[in-house]
């Protein structure tokens, strides 16, 4: 039962993050159970678990819906992610050459996917996940990763302007160069700038979408 719940939780989370289950959507537990080939009770447990990560919302009648994308949540999550990821980079052990090569490869894919917000958001998430995976502080990572999954919902929805992608790829390149020079402080500062610069654009895209 535990494995089935974990699998259902991961699949439903992926659908929510990618926007396949849209913001505010009322969730049909029986339909999801049929699609995932699990009992409806397993789906219900998974939806309750996802509520703790602010991806689903319990309704008054006992059902669940997809948590709405919210400007206030975005404003609150970005500064926390900024601080945690900056700390992860500052305190990580030395970055080996193979990790720097992986970061460059991911960033090249990011720079090549202008006009494809889904791929751009995925590459952006992969870059930042690779950047922090070796920091050695599991408590920090356990806090950061759910936040980043929540933020990925917004990036999938709104990371669709070429200048945003180009700027992000340029900042990523600077981060890797600083790490290659073993300038951890500069790399962390560039990570923090990457988050700070992205937030106004995402908020503007949300506002434009709300007016449309």
Structure write-up:
The N and C termini lie far apart (44 Å). The model has no long low-confidence stretch (mean pLDDT 90). The protein has nine helices and two strands; from the N terminus they run αααββαααααα. It is globular and about 55 Å long. Strand 1 and strand 2 form a beta hairpin. With 212 residues, the protein is mainly alpha-helical. Helix 5 runs antiparallel to helix 6 and helix 8 (162-180) runs antiparallel to helix 9 (184-211).
Mean pLDDT: 90
> Strand tally, please?
2
Instruction: Give the spatial strand order of the biggest sheet.
Output: 1-2
- Number of continuous helical runs: 9
Q: Over all CA atoms, what is the radius of gyration? A: 18 Å
Q: What general outline do the C-alpha atoms trace?
A: globular
Alpha-carbon distance between the termini? Answer: 44 Å
The secondary structure category is mainly alpha
What is the helix/strand order? HHHEEHHHHHH
What share of the residues does DSSP label as strand, in percent? under 5%
How is this fold's topology laid out?
Elements: H1 2-18, H2 29-36, H3 40-52, E1 56-58, E2 64-66, H4 71-91, H5 97-111, H6 117-132, H7 138-158, H8 162-180, H9 184-211
Antiparallel strand pairs: 1-2
Helix pairs in contact: 1-3, 2-3, 4-7, 4-9, 5-6, 5-8, 6-7, 8-9
